[in-house]
């Protein structure tokens, strides 16, 4: 755990969150600033700063996160697919440096792509 990481604090229950799913290795919770009708994040409970910092030892938990996504998305109201986003580092405009997979969807198709600035 990293003491000044907000997602570690969410894992520890020091910051409240609206939980979607939890087991011993992963936590899923709603994004505080949702971009669509369904928007939650799935994170490893272990502090991994970003995809750039993930190693072979993290393959199992990252696989678990991806294989959970479809079931959780369906349960949350995205019945026919969803979008996954992993913002990584400065170029990826990552804001929170605890690896997280955004799951974004809803009842209707999303806009085709991220808008150009
Ligand atoms: P990033 O840009 O790093 O991929 O996304 C970080 C996400 O975390 C943002 O979508 C932001 O709304 C969300 N977020 C930041 N702080 C909190 C928080 O304290 N609680 C929750 N539930 N989401 C947060
Ligand atoms: Zn963390």
Give a structural overview.
- The mean pLDDT is 96.
- The chain has a five-stranded antiparallel beta sheet, covered by helices on one side.
- Helix content is 21%, strand content 21%.
- The protein is an alpha+beta fold.
- Strand 2 (26-30) and strand 3 form a beta hairpin.
- The protein has a single domain (6-105), classed as HIT-like (HIT family, subunit A), CATH 3.30.428.10.
- It is globular.
- The chain has helices spanning 6-11, 59-76, and strands at 19-22, 26-30, 38-44, 83-85, 101-105.
- It has two helices and five strands, in the order αβββαββ.
- Zinc ion (ZN) binds at residues 2, 5, 7-8, 47, 98.
Strand order of the largest sheet: 1-2-3-5-4
Assigned CATH class: Alpha Beta
| Name given to the CATH homologous superfamily | HIT-like
Rg (CA only): 14 Å
How would you spell out the order of helices and strands?
Answer: HEEEHEE
Amount of beta strand: 15-25%
End-to-end C-alpha gap: 35 Å
Q: Sum up the overall morphology in one term.
A: globular
Please, how many domains?
1
Main β-sheet: number of strands, strand sense, barrel status? 5 strands, antiparallel
Task: From the structure above, extract its key features.
single chain, about 120 residues, alpha+beta, HIT family, subunit A, 5-stranded antiparallel β-sheet, globular, binds guanosine-5'-monophosphate, binds zinc ion
Quick structural summary:
The protein has 2 helices and 5 strands. A hairpin with a 7-residue loop joins β2 and β3. The N and C termini lie far apart (35 Å).
